[in-house]
């Protein structure tokens, strides 16, 4: 599908600019041009698709569906899937988390959304698809949704509602599951211009991160020897995945910036599971997110939330290293 992109990158770097093929600079610039074009196109197309999905399933409708029906445990999976189709990073998911709690949705179900939303969204899927291909993208998205589902279920069973702040507990006591959703009068076709504008705005919002991430990846691709990282976090090191997760939590980056770097890490010898665990922890858990959650959770609950999600990410990374 993107063969023309590679041909264009080859023509631009090796033909028009005249940099010699096979040199470090040539390899780095060729990688940069190819990945930027491919990922930007995929990001726009998938943002359009997710815009259509969100037009069919507005926040209020999903909230009311989860709140008012007996789903026999499937509400965790539904919340995780909803998190996957909403364009939120870990920090911007928090206001919707508050809205869910205010709407009377159980805490564990709300956690399922909060875990999945930053891990699996149109930006993450588009960049991951452009970097790793369809097979690994499906595995990653499925793993992210399952991680959110199981994480939400475990956190619900721990009975942690008493660790919410007094403000949130007051919201819960006064919550109402009544619907405030009113179907829009516009058809999907009529909403397409708005969906297109939203896709372009997403592209503008994350474009700089894409360029920075691919730029870093291109530098590593061109100048760092293959196998450079293996002595430190190679497949023989059983502590590599936990160490990657622990190191990633204090960091903060979105998928657009981190996935191209992870691609090159894998090419230079880091096992795919270790790299994905690092990426999940970077975009799914962060200090800024913890600061925002302080409004709704006690510090003990934040630590439990981060701990449970970290354990699931480590398990996912170890699993990836075994099977991929």
What does this protein look like?
Helix 2 (24-56) runs antiparallel to helix 7 (122-132) and helix 13 packs antiparallel against helix 14. The two termini are 24 Å apart. The longest helix has 36 residues, at 188-223. The chain is mainly α and 324 residues long. The chain has helices at 3-16, 24-56, 59-68, 74-84, 93-102, 107-119, 122-132, 134-157, 166-173, 188-223, 230-233, 240-248, 255-267, 272-284, 287-293, 299-323. The protein has 16 helices and no strands. It is globular and about 70 Å long. Mean pLDDT is 78; it is low at 176-183. The chain has one domain.
What distinguishing features does this structure have?
single chain; about 325 residues; mainly alpha; 16 helices
């Amino acid at each position: 599908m993107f063969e023309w992109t590679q041909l264009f990158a080859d023509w631009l770097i090796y033909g028009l600019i005249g940099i010699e093929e096979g040199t470090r600079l040539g390899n780095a610039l060729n990688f940069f041009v190819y990945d930027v074009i491919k990922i930007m196109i995929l990001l726009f197309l998938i943002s359009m698709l997710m815009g259509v999905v969100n037009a069919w399933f507005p926040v209020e409708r999903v909230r009311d569906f989860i709140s008012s029906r007996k789903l026999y445990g499937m509400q965790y999976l539904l919340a995780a899937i909803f998190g996957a189709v909403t364009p939120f990073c870990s920090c911007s998911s928090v206001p919707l988390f508050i809205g869910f709690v205010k709407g009377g949705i159980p805490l564990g179900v709300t956690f399922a959304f909060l875990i999945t939303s930053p891990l699996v969204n149109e930006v993450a899927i588009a960049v991951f698809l452009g970097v790793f291909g369809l097979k690994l993208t499906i595995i990653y998205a499925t793993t992210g949704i399952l991680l959110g589902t199981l994480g939400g279920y475990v956190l619900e069973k721990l009975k942690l509602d008493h660790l919410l702040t007094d403000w949130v507990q007051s919201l819960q006591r006064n919550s109402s599951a009544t619907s405030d959703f009113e179907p829009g009068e516009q058809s999907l076709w009529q909403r397409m211009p708005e969906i297109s504008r939203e896709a372009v705005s997403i592209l503008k919002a994350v474009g700089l991160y894409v360029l920075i991430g691919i730029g870093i990846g291109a530098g590593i691709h061109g100048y760092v020897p293959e196998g450079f990282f293996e002595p430190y976090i190679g497949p023989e090191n059983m502590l590599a995945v936990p160490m990657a997760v622990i190191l990633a939590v204090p960091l903060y980056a979105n998928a657009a910036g981190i996935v191209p770097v992870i691609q090159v890490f894998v090419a230079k010898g880091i096992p795919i599971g270790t790299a994905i665990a690092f990426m999940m922890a970077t975009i799914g858990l962060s200090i800024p997110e913890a600061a925002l959650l302080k409004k709704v959770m006690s510090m003990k609950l934040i630590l439990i939330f981060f701990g449970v999600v970290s354990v699931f990410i480590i398990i996912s990374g170890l699993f990836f290293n075994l099977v991929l």
